[in-house]
Amino acid sequence: MRSRLPQIFFALSTLALALIVAAVWQASTPSWKTCQRNFLQLEAQGEPSAVTKAAVLATPPEIHQVMLTGLQRVDRCTTCHLGVDDPTMKNAPEPFRYHAGLGPHIPSRFGCTICHGGQGLATEKDAAHGKVDFWQTPLLTRDYIRASCGRCHKEGDVPGVPELTEGRHLFETQGCRGCHKLNGVGGSIGPDLTEEGANRRSPEWLEHHFLAPNAVSAGSPMPNFHFTTEQARALTYYMLSLTNEEMGTYYSSVRLIPSPEYGRQLFVEKNCIVCHAIGGIGAKSGPDLLGVTKQHSPEWLDEQLVNPDLVYPGSSMPEYDLETNARKALVAFMASATAQDAQEILSGRGHALTPEDAAIEAGKRDFARFGCAGCHGTELQGGLPNPNAQGGEVPSLLHVSDDYTKDEIIAVIRNGRAPPLDKASGPTPPLYMPSWKSLLSEEDIHQIVDFLWSKQQKSKESW
Amino acid sequence: MMNLIREFWQSIVRRDPLSTDKGKSELVFFNVWLHVHPAKVKKQNLRFKHTFYLGFITFFLFVILLTTGIALMCYYRPYPPQAYQDMKDLQFVVFMGPFLRAMHRWAAHGMVICVFLHMCRVFYTGSYKKPRQFNWVIGVFLLLLTLSLSFTGYLLPWDQLAYWAITVGTNIGSYAPIVGGQLRELLLGGHSVGEAALLRFYVLHVAVLPTLIILLTIVHFWRVRKDGGLSRPVWKLKPSKTETLVTIGSPLEIAPLKTGPASKDKTYGLMEVVTGKPIFETVTPEEEEDAVFSYPYAFFREAIALMVTVTGIMAISLFFHAPLEELANPAKTPNPAKAPWYFLGLQELVSHSALLGGVVAPALMVIVLLAIPYYDRNSSRRPSDRKWALWLFSIFVVANLILIVVGTFFRGPGWALIPPWVHVVAGAE
Amino acid sequence: MNRRAFLNWGTAGLVALCAGVGVSLGAVLRFLVPSVFYEPPQSLKIGNPADFPFGAPTFLADEKIYVFRDRDKGFAVASAVCTHLGCTVGYLQSDQRFHCPCHGSVFGANGAVQHGPAPRALNWFEVTLTRDGQLRVDKDKVVPSNYRLMV
């Protein structure tokens, strides 16, 4: 052994040389260089003269990247996708094909991953497409790409994506907030959805979950809402758009411009007239809003809309989860609103304003916000299976006035109907009407009951 | 003109030509980088099967870590989330980025393993005994510094693995009595792992700890030389005619030396280097005759050890790239959350008892290790005279290995005991 | 092994080692050259030709260039970086010259040095029309001062 040492040294040195050369070779031949060479061949074909052909083919390989500080990302997709902004590459094979129909969403301003998903920092195909371990946002399939529009277009109707409007609407009316928080407003029974789009669940998972919650999430207390496939897709789109990401103003300014007209639209949509008056026309529960922008700063009014309880503790004004520009629009409307506007809004309602309207509106809001709709249905129809309830089903609330007085219902809401544990059946924890006295004030409970009573249907055999 | 060149050359290289004995000696003696070596080594000092050159290998791994580390520093910013983005850049954009990062990571794991193996070797050959006791103590501190360097470096990628491994690791440390909590906050620069922790760990990893380890390494090497050179199996050598093979070292016995005939006091004259008289250890006359010049014999073997280390790490790095998980997410704990592998034995102990496992056991281990050379009164290094010591140490080593293996392979979600051959179905999130 | 064989193998090994070290040094140098720059790119699209008015040039601050558009001759792009020590020059429409505020260099309408310590004329950059109808400026390609892109 000792005598062979020089040969061993030689062998090791040669091995070391071979290894370092192999490492340099490995580093010098990444797949994107081959891709670029192929593209240059394609481009050179379109060149008229041999000189320009040679010039094109001599282009040195380099990594192309788009730095998007406003979107906090760096996209290197164009290192391989070189024809994305070249109309002559309309019929080129992928990855060189031209991307038509972008409108203002050009790659140099938006990159690629904000819409398509994937890993912008990568320069290898599978890694860049996000189809690797430890990258939870792979490329979205064609079915779901348009959901990304909702990441910036947060308000109003998004052109070309009716699913987002539908999804948003379903979320607010089906009582989802009763169990799920969104932007701080909602219940705590289910997970917070503020960043659901960034939670990296696959679109397919989300859609299946809406169609059959328990099949996907074993033991989940989320009831089956029997959505249609279109509704499930709309909700999936909405979920995918909830990324709660920071964006530069160039991107966030795409939200609707805060005009007084938009503000008036919101005023009607949220039924503010049911508690507030303008110049004496309207309801008297809350303060009169005429000239309110002369008494308070825009920041104060904005805060009031975000968190009424902070400015006036104990206020019965509910929390509305409004976007920044929506709030600005409302304030803009209030700056110019007159009693005339209030009158028009009142007449537009169809029926006269009664003193109970404020309570009923508040009750309706609480009904949706605290998840009553989740079990009893948005139309109060009930019908969801509950082995612990009389008749095996969650009762409908449309006829409670037949069998109960208001006080009795108030007691039921306050105390709940927890089944005795040894007799409880069905999933664990057992399903039952919870006690709400710790979450709802007496006033809230009264308002809910007022709302219920406003919805009662006369049954055929009433006595 | 040639004279000028010759004069220029000779102003730099002032020794005699290497073909002469004097030149070979001067190469070592006059060179600042090489003069920790003796001009001549005993052939016994070069025995591969005695030391396996583990000390050298550990040192070369450290050199690899230094060079690759400095290279990586050109592309790394220690601020979340740029840190993670820079890791991705190293992976996808930087020329030889993945290779250098892999070299750094595997050399780090290698160094922890080799430092441990080196410690085992020193124990098994009894090389910590008089007069080398304090060098063992320095060695234990070098082990702790190596673990600290590995631990501080572990956080820098700022991925889920890094974040939670350091969370678990610093929480284990906080169980130390009285100062544990405060020490943890000092280390983290806050109450939990965040920006401040990353910056502090970075400063520790690139500046403070390397300086300390280099300083201690210098002392460690110096002491090896002063203690008589690399360890050799003294029990196998023929005994000297004039005295037993017990090493002499106590200050009272230094002068005069009871060596063989014609002993001379050592001076730092060149003449003395050529005849090779040690101060602290006795040497048999046969060994005396068997001494060879460091150049080329010792340096050649060192070069081979270096080549083996470098080619080994390069080969591994070519085929196995360093892992990178998703971006650190304080809101999402992976299940299970594990400390780096060399602390998994500790985490396993902690899972049974925080105080006993996290504080008492490791503290005891370190104290026992440090004290070994001082309560081991047996002055013989022959293995057959040391059976108890060898068995005890082996049990210690195997116990540690078992704990690490259990922690790595047998602990699943919730730290439940799940053998690795059982497939765990991931629960719905 | 005899001395000659030792030296032969040893030298061969050393040669291989040196070659390895040489390759490594080259690799380290290449490693240190960045492959991507976190800066505004050297070659970029500046917009549609229709966006640029005739007459007074358009100054693009991030890219430090002046975009001239002439009715007869077309587009030309001049660097706004003074060739003396790198300050940004200003173009005065009144005398149609570039003035540098740092040390008083003055460049004529074609970029030539008329006054001051600047050693060279201002650079003019290549501007081309891309296939989707945008203007592309390449600051890595310096062209003569009479270069024009007719659109």
Description:
The complex is a heterotrimer of chains A (463), B (429) and C (151). With 463 residues, chain A is mainly α. Chain A has helices at residues 5-28, 31-45, 50-57, 107-110, 113-116, 125-128, 162-173, 203-211, 213-216, 229-241, 249-252, 260-269, 292-295, 298-306, 308-311, 324-336, 339-348, 356-369, 372-376, 400-403, 406-415, 442-454; strands spanning 66-68, 73-75, 181-182, 185-186, 277-278, 281-282. Chain A is elongated. The mean pLDDT of chain A is 85. A two-stranded antiparallel sheet of chain B has the order 1-2. Mean pLDDT of chain B is 85; it is low at 242-263 and 267-279. Chain B is mainly α and 429 residues long. Chain B is globular. Chain C has 151 residues and is α+β, with helices and mostly antiparallel strands. Helices cover 20% and strands 30% of the residues of chain C. Chain C has 1 helix and 10 strands, in the order H-E-E-E-E-E-E-E-E-E-E. In chain C, a hairpin with a 5-residue loop joins strand 7 and strand 8. The A-B interface holds A 1, 5-6, 8-9, 12-13, 15-16, 19-20, 22-24, 26-28, 63, 74, 76, 119, 121-124, 127, 133-136, 201, 216-218 and B 48, 85, 88-89, 91-93, 95-99, 159-160, 300-301, 303-304, 307-308, 310-311, 314-315, 317-318, 324-326, 428-429.
Topology diagram in text:
The complex is a heterotrimer of chains A (463), B (429) and C (151).
Chain A: H1 5-28, H2 31-45, H3 50-57, E1 66-68, E2 73-75, H4 107-110, H5 113-116, H6 125-128, H7 162-173, E3 181-182, E4 185-186, H8 203-211, H9 213-216, H10 229-241, H11 249-252, H12 260-269, E5 277-278, E6 281-282, H13 292-295, H14 298-306, H15 308-311, H16 324-336, H17 339-348, H18 356-369, H19 372-376, H20 400-403, H21 406-415, H22 442-454
Antiparallel strand pairs in A: 1-2, 3-4, 5-6
Helix pairs in contact in A: 2-3, 7-10, 8-10, 12-16, 14-16, 18-22, 21-22
Chain B: H1 2-12, H2 21-29, E1 40-42, H3 48-51, H4 54-73, H5 82-92, H6 97-124, H7 133-155, H8 160-173, H9 180-188, H10 195-226, H11 270-275, H12 285-289, E2 291-293, H13 294-319, H14 344-352, H15 354-375, H16 387-409
Antiparallel strand pairs in B: 1-2
Helix pairs in contact in B: 4-6, 4-13, 6-7, 6-13, 7-8, 7-10, 7-15, 14-15, 14-16
Chain C: H1 3-32, E1 43-47, E2 58-60, E3 65-70, E4 74-79, E5 90-92, E6 97-99, E7 106-107, E8 113-115, E9 124-129, E10 135-143
Antiparallel strand pairs in C: 1-10, 2-3, 3-4, 4-9, 5-6, 6-7, 7-8, 9-10
